[in-house]
Amino acid sequence: MKVVETDIKVRYQETDQMGVVYHANYLVWFEIGRTAFFEELGFQYHEMEKEEIVAPVLDADIQFKTPVRYGEKAIVRTWIHEYDGLKVVYAYEILNGSGEISVTGKTTHVCVKKDTFKPVSTRKKFPDLHQAYLEAKGDE
Q: Most buried residue, 67, 86, 88, 91, by most Cβ within 10 Å?
């Protein structure tokens, strides 16, 4: 199973009055990790978008365990939890500056046509990406 780690420097504007990262920012960090994972596989989202295909978030699940604070360096660990040729579920762990797991979560995505949001089979439309997902998940 392929895991990609992405460093995040916690910025002041990402925190609340207590100096703790505001909860919605973890979803932004998930996206940063997901984009880094996708690029690590050798692909670019903007190339997919040129073909009028997007991959919206269908579901997000997040658990908060311990805070990440201003001034810390966080690490987003990203991997593929589930993939079936159409739907991909990314999993995440965010570690705080002490290396503790602060946040875990998953996001579910399906490639769709940009204008209609009709689902598109990754297996058929992007066979190289399909193969890369299988290899990253450890299925091939």
A: 88
